[in-house]
Design a protein that fits this description.
With 255 residues, this protein is α/β, with parallel strands linked by helices. The protein is 34% helix and 20% strand. It contains eight helices and eight strands; from the N terminus they run E-E-E-H-E-H-H-H-E-H-E-H-E-H-E-H. The mean pLDDT is 95.
Amino acid sequence: MCHDPASRPPAPPRTGEVGGSGLTTLTAADGTRSSAAWALPADVGAAGAGVVVLPDIRGLHPYYVALTERFAEAGLPAVAIDWFGRTAGVAATGTRDADFDWQTHVPQTTPAGIDADLSAAVAELRARTRPDLPVLTVGFCFGGSHSWRQAGGDLDVAACAGFYGRPAMVGDTAARATRPTLMLIAGADAATPVEEQLALADTMRSGGADVETAVYDGAPHSFFDRAAPEWGEACQDAWRRILALADRVAAGAAR
């Protein structure tokens, strides 16, 4: 479990008005319908980049609905996806609750299905903003792994950031990585050892990717939580790095 059911993301270091938010249903190219959340900044026309949020193993938990709104506050339109449309259908209430049997459904996910849903999220984000909006992925745990995997993939994303990912899940795409990548590493995370993540960064760099790593000494898995004030400085640093990556993506697209 990545977060306590009551956990919520910390506030970003820059804030503005949210122009709108809500739940929706995405339809992938293979016809699969899945749950998603979206949020837009009030001045959506000024947004230089957007974010697709890739959740942890629980899927579209309320934490990630709230995170889309935090991104919108920071000036970035965002869509958060759910993993389980193919095996569990659209979430009855729009999000997965604490009783959802993710253990049954996670093993049934596939990289191809995840990429199809991610592509649908990119299309949704652009439909709500503009067709040429550059997009970065930001993932957590299971989603962090799949975010890093995009650095060597074929989807139309500009950069990839991830917390708490598992290097083994990135697979052989690591050696083909070319996109800017941010790895946010919990220093006391036994599930994803620091050494393995730093080795992954080196492999990705060998493929030509610009990889930034940040190791937060002593921080546990899922430290990015407003209910963990002892990790407040780490949370703010992680936010600053994500927003800096988004700003780089926006600046590159504006050239």
